[in-house]
Amino acid sequence: MKKAFWLAGATILALAQPALAGDTIKIGFVSTFSGPTAVIGNDMRNSFELALDHLGRKMGGKPVEVIYEDDGQKPDVGKQKTEKLIQSDKVDFIVGYIWSNVLLASLKTAVDSKTFLISANAGPSQLAGELCSPYVFSTSWQNDQTPQAVGTYMNQKGVKSVFLIGPNYAAGKDMLAGVKSTFKGQVVGEEYTVWPSQLDFSAELTKAKNSKAESIFVFYPGAAGVQFLNQYAQAGLKGQIPLYTAFTIDELSLPLQKENAIGVPGAQQWVNDLPNPENKKFVEDYRKKYTGLRPTFYGAQSYDAANLINSAVIAVKGDTSKKDEMKAEMEKANFKSVRGPFKYGNNHIPIQNFYLQDVVKDADGQLSLKTVATIVKDDQDRFHDKCPMKK
Amino acid sequence: MLVLVEQSLNGLQFGLLLFLLAAGLTLVFGIMDFVNLAHGSLYMMGAYFAATFVAWTGSFVLGILLALGATLLLGILLEFIALRHLYGRDHLDQVLATFGLILFFNDAVRLIWGPAGLSLPLPAWLTVPVQIVPGVFYPAYRLSIIVVALAVAALLYVVVMRTRIGMLIRAGASNREMIGALGINIKLLFTLVFGLGAALAGLAGLMQAPILTVQIGMGENILILAFVIIVIGGIGSIRGAFLAAIFVGMIDTLGRAFLPDLLRTVLSSAAASTAAPALSSMLIYLLMAIVLVVRPEGLFPAAKR
């Protein structure tokens, strides 16, 4: 009798197991955790973990399980990891993606399986336009938007001509096209470099110098940004031809760029000193939890991604099978973003402000980024008309 | 015209830097018949040592000299502890073991210095551009790389061709068993050669460090180029490595500099700017393929075994 009782109990437990597994919110996180750009992936993971701490590691009353996967900055690896997360781990959401080419390679897998994908950085033009999907949201931007803001700022400064340099991959092309779309002066030259292997820009700098352009615009994320600024300064171009940047100076590259970064403007939708309470909490707690480190915009976007997912899960009271309701909730952007309030466009890309950022010495004597002005307000990307989804 | 001068200097500088890396590799490969994939790790260690010592001592020159010594020592230690047990083995075993060393060094660096990378700032006197011909300014630091690398090349030539130890090295490359039989301590000779190769790799790494960042895995991309160079130049030949390195540096830089404009005359601007970087990075491998077909032993092979 006793034996039968135990047996029944064990059976019930065994049966209950799958149901228990369904009681967690499963999130897959694809980013770069190895190689020279692993520092970016670490910052994203740190910020995502911090967001989960702030949420009590629960969403809609259910515990959250995150599976981190390393894409090694390679599109084919990113695609594989995305497939693994969706097909064998059966995640409810998939988040991350630093690189536009990795995201583009992974996109179809997520969309076909109707798994919600939140891009916490990459914003290729295709994603905003013809490849937009009800299951894809962005907590970052469309690639062109940031350089467009830089172009606008250059117009305000009265710059007459520019030489463009960027890496030869999806985002590099978007970035340079972005500046060209708003900059009213003359584009005297445009150079693409092999990505990510080319680290010496001497040939391009020589061409820029000899083009007699009044300014140079570059897009070099990660360590390449450090290398570019080093070489730009060593070539004696600092003070000769002013440099304008997008995604080249951030809290990860700044400690290595040091003085070379002073006086080099950039644009961003989030800066660490934006005066809203959520941002203050994010930045302060980040610096407390990860001593010696400072959050970047990559981290801010990942923090927002966690809160966006949380808003959707709460709206369906933890029942992640209600995809339409979750989609409707996320479209409202009903959470407190660290960049301040924003709206989603028809293509699920934020309509948001872009700020001018500059490098200054802060109270601790360390170099840090500071908001100087608002360049554009409520900016919507220029591909949203190509997206078949209408509001 | 002035642009061409400047771009050629860029090419020369890149080529000479590659020579430093390739010289060590070709010495070890050609003389010891040992495939060392971890050569790129020694390049990385040179850069990390330099960044650390320059920060400690506060002096650029002193820091660099210390780093050079440290890489030499590391090379000798590495040979003594691990690599000398692999000489008799198959090339595949050596590839496997030295690939393991790459992973070991990458993680050792991550443990000691952290994942974020370091920077090696230049002293003020090296950051100013120098006027070389009227109207052409060139970064002083890149100029100093050219000078140092040429000096090292000359020194290597003298040591290998004009000294007793150089004679032994050349003899070792031609017939290892024979010089062993003649009573030369081949073990010591190999340790020295490996140390020298390591120091050259370290020198390349620390000289490249102020231009690039000091980061984990920095030696892996550039090692591929070094292998291309020793294949083009002829394995074991310092002269071959020197000339091939300059070829490769020139082709790479001039390709990047002029190919886009050349392509724009036949293609649309957008297509040209996309195709040019891809094509210019292919040129080097194209050259290697042609050399392998026409002269499989390389352009300037070392003396026959």
From TrEMBL, chain A:
<dbReference type="InterPro" id="IPR028082">
    <property type="entry name" value="Peripla_BP_I"/>
</dbReference>
<feature type="domain" description="Leucine-binding protein">
    <location>
        <begin position="24"/>
        <end position="362"/>
    </location>
</feature>
<keyword id="KW-0732">Signal</keyword>
<protein>
    <submittedName>
        <fullName>ABC transporter substrate-binding protein</fullName>
    </submittedName>
</protein>
<feature type="signal peptide">
    <location>
        <begin position="1"/>
        <end position="21"/>
    </location>
</feature>
<dbReference type="GO" id="GO:0006865">
    <property type="term" value="P:amino acid transport"/>
</dbReference>
<dbReference type="InterPro" id="IPR051010">
    <property type="entry name" value="BCAA_transport"/>
</dbReference>
<keyword id="KW-0813">Transport</keyword>
<dbReference type="Pfam" id="PF13458">
    <property type="entry name" value="Peripla_BP_6"/>
</dbReference>
<keyword id="KW-0029">Amino-acid transport</keyword>
<dbReference type="InterPro" id="IPR028081">
    <property type="entry name" value="Leu-bd"/>
</dbReference>
<comment type="similarity">
    <text>Belongs to the leucine-binding protein family.</text>
</comment>
UniProtKB/TrEMBL annotation, chain B:
<feature type="transmembrane region" description="Helical">
    <location>
        <begin position="64"/>
        <end position="83"/>
    </location>
</feature>
<feature type="transmembrane region" description="Helical">
    <location>
        <begin position="212"/>
        <end position="233"/>
    </location>
</feature>
<keyword id="KW-0472">Membrane</keyword>
<dbReference type="GO" id="GO:0005886">
    <property type="term" value="C:plasma membrane"/>
</dbReference>
<dbReference type="Pfam" id="PF02653">
    <property type="entry name" value="BPD_transp_2"/>
</dbReference>
<keyword id="KW-0813">Transport</keyword>
<protein>
    <submittedName>
        <fullName>Branched-chain amino acid ABC transporter permease</fullName>
    </submittedName>
</protein>
<dbReference type="GO" id="GO:0022857">
    <property type="term" value="F:transmembrane transporter activity"/>
</dbReference>
<keyword id="KW-1003">Cell membrane</keyword>
<feature type="transmembrane region" description="Helical">
    <location>
        <begin position="271"/>
        <end position="294"/>
    </location>
</feature>
<feature type="transmembrane region" description="Helical">
    <location>
        <begin position="42"/>
        <end position="58"/>
    </location>
</feature>
<feature type="transmembrane region" description="Helical">
    <location>
        <begin position="240"/>
        <end position="259"/>
    </location>
</feature>
<dbReference type="InterPro" id="IPR001851">
    <property type="entry name" value="ABC_transp_permease"/>
</dbReference>
<dbReference type="GO" id="GO:0006865">
    <property type="term" value="P:amino acid transport"/>
</dbReference>
<keyword id="KW-1133">Transmembrane helix</keyword>
<feature type="transmembrane region" description="Helical">
    <location>
        <begin position="136"/>
        <end position="160"/>
    </location>
</feature>
<feature type="transmembrane region" description="Helical">
    <location>
        <begin position="95"/>
        <end position="116"/>
    </location>
</feature>
<feature type="transmembrane region" description="Helical">
    <location>
        <begin position="181"/>
        <end position="206"/>
    </location>
</feature>
<keyword id="KW-0029">Amino-acid transport</keyword>
<dbReference type="InterPro" id="IPR052157">
    <property type="entry name" value="BCAA_transport_permease"/>
</dbReference>
<keyword id="KW-0812">Transmembrane</keyword>
<feature type="transmembrane region" description="Helical">
    <location>
        <begin position="12"/>
        <end position="35"/>
    </location>
</feature>
